[in-house]
Amino acid sequence: MLNFNYSIPTKVFFGKNKIELLADNIKQYGNKVLLVYGGGSIKKSGLYEEVIESLNKNKIESWELSGVKPNPRISSVRKGIEICRENKIDLVLAVGGGSVIDCSKIIAAGYYYDNDPWDIVVDPRKIGKALPIATILTLAATGSEMDAGAVITNPETSEKLGTGHPNIAPKFSILDPTYTFTVPKEQTAAGTVDIMSHVFEVYFSNTKEAYLQNRMAEAVLKTCINYGKRAMDEPNDYEARANLMWAGSLAINGLLGYGKETEWSAHEIEHELSAYYDITHGVGLAILFPYWMEYALNDDTVDKFVEYGVNVWDIDSDNDKYEIAKSSINKTREYFNSLGMPSRLEEVGIGEEKLEQMAKGATSRGTLGRFKPLEAEDVLSIYKSAL
Amino acid sequence: MLNFNYSIPTKVFFGKNKIELLADNIKQYGNKVLLVYGGGSIKKSGLYEEVIESLNKNKIESWELSGVKPNPRISSVRKGIEICRENKIDLVLAVGGGSVIDCSKIIAAGYYYDNDPWDIVVDPRKIGKALPIATILTLAATGSEMDAGAVITNPETSEKLGTGHPNIAPKFSILDPTYTFTVPKEQTAAGTVDIMSHVFEVYFSNTKEAYLQNRMAEAVLKTCINYGKRAMDEPNDYEARANLMWAGSLAINGLLGYGKETEWSAHEIEHELSAYYDITHGVGLAILFPYWMEYALNDDTVDKFVEYGVNVWDIDSDNDKYEIAKSSINKTREYFNSLGMPSRLEEVGIGEEKLEQMAKGATSRGTLGRFKPLEAEDVLSIYKSAL
């Protein structure tokens, strides 16, 4: 186990009707709020009205930034910062999924940054003070509601980059699983893949004897496997939605990665797909991860795949090591398929054209990962195998 | 899954040499410290000197309360509060195991309480403001380094009571596994049992479909089973010590219990033993827990024991339900025995004399638990079966 500094300061109010705690908790920070949301889904579901009612009743003034898209754009961030500065906002309230929350985080940090906010996406060290952020989550996926990271897209440069800083962790997040009842099948599936992929990035690691972390990571993976399909088939199943929602937060709030070398290479590889083709992040991950696993499997890493196969997929530990490893990868792909996810880039309209360009892009900040270090040519091989 | 409010604000600096962060983190709260510790073990190990050196070098003034005993006494708390008030202490620094930390917590809260601090042990609602608390942990066991609880003993009334309040959670804790290399075999064993018993209290629960929490609880149990004996046999095994240390914190910081009904009845039953006979908490738990399990096993609870047996002890799930359940209890007792723990009260010099009195004491605040609710007569039965 490696040394680590643990800090997970976000408070989580989890369960039915927890929105009743919203106003009191906002007021600890002030009474001028920027409400950030996406399309009309929170209006259709009634959540928007519920939020506005709570704010009004408690004399909290609010301004709005709506229309934040999946793979949130730096242009939305710029707009949000403007509104905050004009109105001396006290707190940024994100109501939505990861894109809305990520956008809110960079608005909150950008508020105190004098130049263009794309700078603080490119270089997290430029993040300093930030406005307090709160979230009401409507999608179990990115874990942004409980972590200190954000991913922003710049269409002008075809870049999709991750950034992060302790100051942009939300002060509190309201996680009411009933808000995810209306999430469509495909998004439920993509969210489940996203959660599992966050675990993969910290689970497949060179660190020996992070035994506790590994067993906890398996706990989160099993939860996704147990409830992902069920939530698709029974969208109003509270227990399925609740387990997925909490799994999403714990997958990436730091808990599973503390004390380990972590990987995050498949995410970088996928970010290129979303940046160039604007596909859903979870869909890209579902396609790429099994190919990444196949590429990463070798004599140095096979034992880790055996651990994965035996503990997560209940594969008989008496089998041959490589047999277990390959079977664990197949089971992963089969599970993603059972969620309706594609297995090949062609299925989402991605051909050979930009693969080299994307492989270079993915490695533009250096070698990816340490479990299986990847250069541009390795990334290209993975893309090609996934065609 | 039940609704819950998650807040685990304690920062943890985990690993070798993390003491280098001590002074800077203390200074965020002031420069006058009450150093609380137990017997001479931290002097023998050199940790005391290391702490003093760090304080001196950084111009942090310190006062000392030493001699805090296992099952810490309210008299130590009173003494600590006096020193704090006389010297306008800014932060209470606990260096030791759970007893030292628990004592420090009540000193910190008692500082702001005008009457006798035993009041705030008896009635947690009387806890208000508290001095900031920091800890340097030397024993993996109680989890007090990352939670908001404390257990204090009053020998005058033969009471050992648990109390708690969010304000007494440590601001930060330094967890360096090397500080536990010198923990004797018996204490390593008792600590491992203590950690496992904290998990049992939240694992055995009526709450259905807290699937994620259950799998995480099993992760902590497996970690204890994997490393407890190893740490006894190889006291300087860093990985064993590290896994146990982190398991101890995660077992009771709230993570495993959020969203569930929790039990805590075996702890109440054990507290009576320690209050009357001053035996080691973990030893009392090792004796009592298997008997509590046997008493709790019935048609309503058997499925939970099957889950435990199959997932934690790898018992074949095709076996008869009761066979699995009983086997899981036997394996628990056998594991405790393998750590050198006794199985009967007689072995630690406890006879029939005070059983009735203790059974009444354990239930003096009402029925214990909900998984298997216990009245005084039930507790007495458990004591008697354990004789």
TrEMBL record, chains A, B:
Transmembrane parts of this sequence: none
A Pfam family this chain is assigned to: Fe-ADH
Alphabetically ordered keywords of this record: Oxidoreductase
Superkingdom to which the source organism belongs: Bacteria
InterPro entries (UniProt xref): ADH_Fe/GldA, ADH_Fe_C, ADH_Fe_CS, BDH-like
CDD domains the UniProt entry points to: BDH
SUPFAM superfamilies: Dehydroquinate synthase-like
Domain Alcohol dehydrogenase iron-type/glycerol dehydrogenase GldA, chain residue ranges per copy: 9-177
GO molecular function per UniProt: alcohol dehydrogenase (NADP+) activity; butanol dehydrogenase (NAD+) activity; metal ion binding; methylglyoxal reductase (NADPH) (acetol producing) activity
GO CC term (a single one): cytosol
Record-linked PROSITE patterns: ADH_IRON_1, ADH_IRON_2
Domain (Fe-containing alcohol dehydrogenase-like C-terminal) ranges: 188-387
Name this protein carries in UniProt: Iron-containing alcohol dehydrogenase
Classification lineage: Bacteria, Bacillati, Bacillota, Tissierellia, Tissierellales
